[in-house]
Amino acid sequence: MKNVAVRLRALEPEDLDMLYAMENDHEVWNVGENNVPYSRYVLHDYIANATADIYADRQVRMMVENADGECVGVVDLVNFSPAHCRAEVSIVIRRDMRRRGYAAAAVSQVTAYALRTLHLHQLYAVVAVDNAASLRLFDTLGFKPSSQLKDWIYDGKSYRDAVVMQRVL
User: Fold this and answer.
1) 143 vs 167: CA distance, rounded Å
2) Contact in structure between 53 and 61 (CB atoms under 8 Å)
């Protein structure tokens, strides 16, 4: 794995255009939970009202910047359960910035944050069985398959199975 420098930071109003493009990318809909378009207004409100407090929001979204300060993606901790000390992790890297090591660096940093700052016991990711790149990413970072979910992801045409990739910290 390449040693790539990234910085995770809070959302800023200037991130609206990038979030709008990513949230409305149909390719991303096929790998995540959301499959509806978001308006600029809704995303503007989200940025304005997100507290960046995972305990209040039960999620935290961070922008991923490369060494040049260019925003290359978004990493999330969602479905946060303080009672069970776990959260789901998701990562989206801009299409033109993929396969450069940014996803691995960002997930590594958010994992360290989850362990050292949030004191979580585990992280997990739900990955489509045919998403070889994401399965390889999480496996490389110490996430192990723990279960398979039948017909879990619907892309508008067909259902696909998913794998829960889990890392106990």
Assistant:
1) 4
2) no
